[in-house]
Model the fold of this input.
Amino acid sequence: MTPLVSIIMGSTSDYSVMEKAALFLDQQEIPFEINALSAHRTPMEVSEFARNAEGRGIKVIIAAAGMAAALPGAIAAETTLPVIGVPVKSSFEGMDSVLSMLQMPPAVPVSVMAVNGSLNAAIMAMEILALTNEEINKRMHAYKQSLKEKIVKANEEFSKIEFKYKTN
Done:
């Protein structure tokens, strides 16, 4: 099975954040890989990964990093694949990571999620894949429909709750 999404972490300690992305992709039956690479400690390996990802069949890269958070940008600099950055809360409430990902120079974009927002990164990856893969597109529509159904069900439950001044 060839991975379509690559989850890359700047440190193995980021796995607790990125596990949500892995679980979502697994539930949606989207092949993925997980690796740790550091823009600062293994720069040559990051460069090699980025340059070879497309040739290996990767379609989307999710890159998580904390503090200086150079990893998503270093990858984006050497690939034409979409790179989704996940800032990891490790210092300054994660704002240092957010800003380093947001402030990419022109022509080297990184899509940036919320701090520790790996689930949204996986959903975004699925949406990107759904553009060209009919099976994934169907699963994306089903997933979105399930979100709607959760809210409808929640409102049904709320309607059963009684308060003296509740009007619905």
About this structure: Residues 30 and 49 are 20 Å apart (CA to CA). The longest strand covers residues 60-66. Helices lie at 15-27, 43-52, 71-76, 95-102, 118-130, 134-160. The first helix runs from residue 15 to 27.
